[in-house]
Amino acid sequence: NQCTFRWKLKKFTGLKPADTTALTGILKAPNVAPQTKGMLTVPLPATWGQYDVLYVTARDPYGREIYTWSWPISLPQRVAERFMETGSGAITARDEANRLTLTASGLTVGWNKKTGMIEGLKNAKNAVSFGNGPVLIGGDDSLKTFRHRDTLGTHVVELLFEGKHRYRAVWTIYPSGWLKLTYQYRPDNTMDLLGITFAYPEEQVTGMDLLGNGPYRVWRNRLKGGTLDAWHKTYNDAVTGERWEYPEFKGYYSHVYGARLRTKEGGFTVLSGSEAMFLRVLTPTSPKAANNANTVPAFPSGGISFMHGIPAVGTKFQKPETMGPQSQPNMLYANGGTDTLSGVLYFDFR
Prior knowledge:
Layout: E1 4-12, E2 20-27, E3 53-59, E4 65-72, H1 76-83, E5 92-95, E6 99-104, E7 107-112, E8 118-122, E9 127-128, E10 131-136, E11 142-150, E12 155-162, E13 168-173, E14 179-185, E15 190-191, E16 194-199, E17 205-214, E18 227-234, E19 251-253, E20 258-263, E21 268-272, E22 278-281, E23 304-309, E24 330-331, E25 341-348
Antiparallel strand pairs: 1-2, 1-3, 3-4, 5-6, 6-7, 7-8, 8-9, 10-16, 11-12, 12-13, 13-14, 14-25, 15-24, 16-23, 17-18, 17-20, 19-22, 20-21, 21-25, 22-23
């Protein structure tokens, strides 16, 4: 009982670290002899289900933090519904031969009707360079059907692609200017990268507010150690082992609930309505001194991606595929396993 333990319940009211409300308390540590086990009982209040995450922090006899564990209470969809706005008002549409343009609350979005990709985003202040998506990573599916309909409250854009992945994406624009994207696809049985990607120029990025496991990036075989919380990260081009600038900014992030990318254009917000979503932010610079690609995992095209599966990383002396089960490619099986992957995302470009 020489160590001390505290619990904390936290509810997120926004994506910034300060956007939270919390309850805290002390856990009574049991008397546990060396090499034996004990049990901690967390005296949670009756309202614990109204919060988003539970933390337990352990400190040694000198008051130094040993570790803080975090467990999610709220699923991403619950948090997303709290943050996003549907709004009220008119949505205008301009349907041309090769382009559909929708406008709501000062946000204008254009789609290429031949490819299904977003081509042109503009809010009340300026153009937003986000676009050329959603591209299915690792797929060569071409657009088969482009449909647009007015649902008397929202407008829906449905994209059906032909190809073995059966890729389908549906955009919904709300009067508030928020966009919802739902998508699904059937991946190959073994793939290094699973998900969708969009283009965004790195030179516009200045930082990020992240609600998810952080503050460090992850790889498929390096998932442990993160804490579910709201984090602020300033852009850097750090290369592990070459620049003493941590945590690195560019890479994959796990269990993402949402993020606001801070940019020279004003920034934009994305929320996940799906569990276990990875967010890819830009592509790390390769090490200059490396004489192999063991520590340079694959990244999708574009700059911002939403992933169901990410690659593993190797070491100076070993390729990732030689380092155990967690270092193998993402494997899915149609017979008795998950054969269709799906996702829900919410965007605010205003």
